[in-house]
Amino acid sequence: MSWAGPDDVLLSTSLASYLDKKLLVLLRDGRKLLGLLCSFDQFANVVLQDACERVIVGDLYCDIPLGLYVIRGENVVLIGELELDKEELPPHMTRVSVVEIKRAQKAERDATDLKGTMRKRMEFLDFD
Amino acid sequence: MFEIRCLRDLYTSFFLGFFHPKPRLRTAGRLLEHTRNLCLSVRRKMLFFSYFKDLVGREVTVELKNDLAIRGTLHSVDQYLNIKLENTRVVDQDKYPHMLSVRNCFIRGSVVRYVQLPPEGVDVELLHDATRREARGG
């Protein structure tokens, strides 16, 4: 990331134009963090204020509040500016509590594990 | 602009280069500017950086290593090949509901798998020459 002067900020890849804006940060492990950008550096290390993790399982979602977060740049995939006048999520999605979303996450994890073991069994039996 | 009134002025003019002005590419279009950028960039090993700089303003699709594909207008690029896109829309929107209201984004260079370019935006010959020069110089 280049340290642009005040005139170049509009044309450069600097995150300066995102300061104090509500952002969506996608991480390498698939997590989605939302928050206000406090600061950044040349490695795309980022400090988010009032951060929350948006967990999405199927049509259910939940925002888990996290507070002040410092994200190491190597884990950042994408930083997106959330438009305030647009809907952040499709209307068919329902907001649930933290407990419910954790339960849904566990169910999804178990389903994928089961799919994995079934596939391994099939491969062992050499089914096509 | 610069008057030569004495011998000292003459020497100064040599130093400033007024006596032998460099041929300016005034009639060039962007094409010649691209050529110049690519030629200069080769020596500094920044071929792709310069190439992407010339593609600013074009519609590209960036495919990330996590399989997310984003289409948008290339706003800017930097030495790490971090990319800033404007007017973005995700290719498979239903799979990524959280990206619904994102219209501008910054993509870290290290997570890009592909950058899909419009074929008319690519001058293959120019790239070939620049690559050959870089291979020779590197």
Structural descriptors:
heterodimer, A: 128 residues, alpha+beta, six-stranded mixed β-sheet, 1 helix, 38% strand, B: 138 residues, five-stranded antiparallel β-sheet, 4 helices
User: How big is the Rg of chain B?
Assistant: 21 Å
Q: Beta-strand level of the residues of chain B, as a percent range? A: 15-25%
Structural class of chain A: alpha+beta
End-to-end Cα distance of chain A: 49 Å
Helices, strands, pairings?
The complex is a heterodimer of chains A (128) and B (138).
Chain A: E1 22-27, E2 32-40, E3 46-57, E4 60-71, E5 76-82, E6 94-95, H1 98-125
Parallel strand pairs in A: 4-6
Antiparallel strand pairs in A: 1-2, 1-5, 2-3, 3-4
Chain B: H1 7-16, H2 30-43, H3 47-54, E1 59-64, E2 69-77, E3 83-90, E4 102-107, E5 112-116, H4 124-137
Antiparallel strand pairs in B: 1-2, 1-5, 2-3, 3-4
Helix pairs in contact in B: 2-3, 2-4
Domain Sm (chain A): 10-85
GO molecular function (chain A): mRNA binding
Subcellular location (chain A): Cytoplasm; Cytoplasm, P-body
Descriptive overview:
The complex is a heterodimer of chains A (128) and B (138). With 128 residues, chain A is an alpha+beta fold. Helix content of chain A is 22%, strand content 38%. Chain A is built from 1 helix and 6 strands. Chain A has one helix spanning 98-125, and strands spanning 22-27, 32-40, 46-57, 60-71, 76-82, 94-95. In chain A, strands 5-1-2-3-4-6 form a 6-stranded mixed β-sheet. In chain A, strand 3 and strand 4 (60-71) form a beta hairpin. The mean pLDDT of chain A is 87. Chain B is an alpha+beta fold. Chain B contains 4 helices and 5 strands. In chain B, strand 1 (59-64) and strand 2 (69-77) form a beta hairpin. In chain B, helix 2 packs antiparallel against helix 3 and helix 2 (30-43) packs parallel to helix 4 (124-137). Residues 23-28 of chain B have low confidence and may be disordered. The interface between A and B is medium-sized, with 32 and 29 residues.
